[in-house]
Design brief:
Elements lengths: L10 H4 L1 E2 L2 E2 L11 H15 L6 H13 L4 H13 L3 H14 L1 H16 L2 H14 L4 E2 L2 E2 H11 L3 H16 L7 H13 L3 H14 L4 H13 L3 H16 L25
Antiparallel strand pairs: 1-2, 3-4
Length: 271
């Protein structure tokens, strides 16, 4: 059974969210047998057309005409638009997903606003709300404090960025004891922006230890080395970073194929 065809089943099943039960959803009437057949047709058809096509959007519109409260359909309308950089078009659909299932989609919207639309103020509001609605959770492989720290970094509030990145690192150092190299990378960037180059070098070293070919961390570490007058070491590391980058070693988040992450290097850095 495909992911979407399950929605022909009784209405209660559609209210189940990945993090628990749907919240803030209004009362809905059961779908009639005739509408259930139509819904299955629209859903099955939408699975057979390209995700970025207008035709799929029309099938989702048809499904929403039957289940206008279905947060998942709204999210499915928004997602490809964000990946096509049509943020202002996709945002009302994502807002509807949050309206009908805040628990499931408040942190997802925060992530999309942070990494895709780069509306860091809006993302911050949503992540703070997610802490209230969901708790101390995470989204897309990172804790909320990671993204909050990233938002503050991009808003040039470096002390707040440092505080939240240190918090997420401290949480990870507890069981099971694994710290993500990207948390360390952005903490290093905070120190780099504060011109605390020695602290930045120490932090970048920790990230590189976890990801030995991490061209982005090596590039900024090389900048720090140049600032503390270790120019020969810096030059050697620039070359090493460039070689790693040419082999494809950079920020490797799943969504990096759609969006450039803050401070991510590109080929122009090595020309």
């Amino acid at each position: 059974m495909g992911m979407l065809t399950k929605y022909i089943l009784p209405i209660a099943i559609t209210l189940v969210a990945s993090k628990g039960h749907a919240q803030n959803a209004p009362f809905v009437k059961p779908v009639s047998a005739a509408d259930s057949i139509k819904l299955k047709k629209y859903v099955d058809s939408s699975e057979r057309v390209p995700v970025y096509s207008h035709r799929r959007q029309r099938y989702l519109d048809s499904a929403l005409a039957i289940e206008p409260w279905n947060a998942y359909w709204w999210q499915q309308k928004a997602m490809p638009l964000y990946k096509q950089k049509k943020y202002s078009v996709g945002k009302p659909f994502l807002d509807s997903a949050v309206k009908y299932d805040r628990y499931r989609y408040i942190d997802y919207r925060a992530f999309m606003e942070c990494i895709f639309a780069k509306d860091y103020s809006s993302a911050l509001e949503d992540f703070e709300q997610a802490k209230i609605v969901v708790g101390q959770g995470g989204v897309m492989d990172h804790r909320y404090d990671f993204y909050i720290g990233l938002c503050y970094l991009q808003l040039d509030q470096l002390d707040e960025a440092e505080r939240h990145l240190l918090a997420t690192i401290a949480d990870q150092e507890k069981a099971p004891g694994f710290v993500h190299f990207l948390d360390l990378f952005y903490l290093g960037i905070v120190y780099y922006q504060k011109e605390d180059y020695n602290a930045a070098i120490t932090t970048f070293n920790k990230a590189i230890k976890l990801y030995p070919q991490f061209s982005d961390a090596k590039y900024y570490k090389a900048n720090c080395l140049a600032h503390v007058n270790k120019r020969e070491e810096a030059e050697a590391l620039y070359k090493e970073a460039g070689a790693d980058f040419k082999q494809g070693y950079t920020i490797n988040e799943d969504n990096a194929i759609y969006e450039t992450y803050p401070y991510q290097v590109s080929k122009v850095y090595f020309e």
